[in-house]
Design a protein that fits this description.
It is a single chain. The protein is mostly helical and 148 residues long. Among the domains are: 54 residues; 38 residues, no CATH class. It is built from 5 helices and no strands. Helix 4 packs across helix 5. The longest helix is centred in the middle third of the chain and has 50 residues. The relative contact order is 0.04.
Length: 148
Amino acid sequence: MSNDPLSNDERSGSGYDERIEVPQETLVAIEEAIRAAGAFVRPSDDLRPRTLETARELSEDRRGGVRLASFAAVLLLCLIVSAPVGQRLSAWYQRIEAPSAAELQQQALQIETDRNTGPHWGLYEAFSQLRRSQAVRLGQRTVHGAMQ
């Protein structure tokens, strides 16, 4: 007879879910073996510091992942919100877009030569045309009160 409390029949069947009778002497022997092994098994002196350091590293890694995920979520939210705003701004910008100073000066020179006026009147007419065209694009009334 072996010291094994489980027979081969009990191991192969569904006997693990059922309570089995183990002789009291076997339990006492197992407890004595565990107590005896307790004198031989000792944790190393650096077990606690290593465990704490590993836990800190894992916590920092997890926090870094959470920060990265939060940053990505905020960035995605900003992109989602800013896309329609950007489209509206670009449409609005196209409505108020004006020529550069060099283009306006070139237009003033053209008006000056076409109408045979001085440079000041050419620049005045160029600005007046610019203001009228902006008023039309913005849907506002001109100085004279009429839409052009």
